[in-house]
Amino acid sequence: MPGRHRVLSTSRLHPDAEDLLRQTCDYEVAPDERPDTLRRAVVEADALIVRTKLPADIFDHARRLSACVRHGVGLDFVPLEAATRAGIPVANLPSANTQAVVEHVVGSIIVVARGLHALANAFAETGWSSRIGHSGMELQGRTLGVVGCGRIGRGVARAMQAAFGMRVLGFGRELDPAGDIEPTPLDRLFAASDAITLHLPATPETRHIVDARLLGSMKPGAVFINASRGELVDSTALAAALREGRIRGAAVDVFDREPPPGDHPLRTAPNAFLTPHVAGLTDDSARRMSVGAAEESLRILRGERPLSLVNPEVWHAFLRRRQHERTT
Known about the structure:
- By secondary structure, the chain is α/β, with parallel strands linked by helices.
- The protein has helices at 15-24, 35-41, 80-85, 98-114, 116-126, 151-164, 186-192, 212-216, 235-243, 283-301, 315-327, and strands at 5-9, 25-29, 47-50, 67-70, 90-91, 143-147, 167-171, 181-183, 195-198, 223-226, 249-252, 272-274.
- It has a 7-stranded parallel β-sheet, with helices on both faces. A 5-stranded parallel β-sheet has the order 2-1-3-4-5.
- Helix 3 links the parallel strand 4 (67-70) and strand 5.
- Helix 1 (15-24) runs parallel beside helix 10 and helix 4 (98-114) packs across helix 6 (151-164).
- The chain starts with a strand and ends with a helix.
């Protein structure tokens, strides 16, 4: 239909979101997620919904693009500086999968603290005798270290305080010393915590922020959780800590290479509870993220400011450009 906007998604959305887009737009899904495919597919798109990592030069091929919306929170999938240079508004969904990730992390702490992942595997292989010698750590009254105290980190802290009365140490910006999370330097947090969970973005400054030195400072019976970004952790050092029994165990949902290759050091590390980047994926969050991404795309295409605009410096120039296009 002439005049209809074209919306491209890098992969399928929830059916409710696809139905919403089709009401007013021509909606399509990229045939696959390879960089060359995405470069070709974006040429005629007015809006792009991002569910996979974009090539760095994607916006050089997006001659019509007016909106780029991240299906989720993390912006490492989007070359944000390039989008800003091109004057393309970028939005994300900072709260859409918060509860899903909080619940995944809480569950992971319990699983690793009690050794349930290893026990389940042993029970399947050897039967009832697998219970002999099994033990685990109770969490009541112990110390939780939260590295990155945004929505998810604070959500995990509240849940563990409410359920187990845990003391919570926090490393991050703008923590209130009078609040329920005690602001703590990173070194002391790692040394004092019985369970540590990461909730930082992936940036050049945070790459391998968790290294062999920090892992070596952890309590011997502590557990380590990463459902944030794989680049935050030196995977070789974490695998060594697990192999040498220096920590109780680790739950890892994100990897420095995704999917992790067969020879990735964590694939064979003992006491590692590994999941394939699914912390934010539930039936509820999948619908929230897809519908939210569709709604943000439509807002921008209508010339309305999105709810979560991550490069606001482009907005006024974007509106002026749209107005010029309508009058010429």
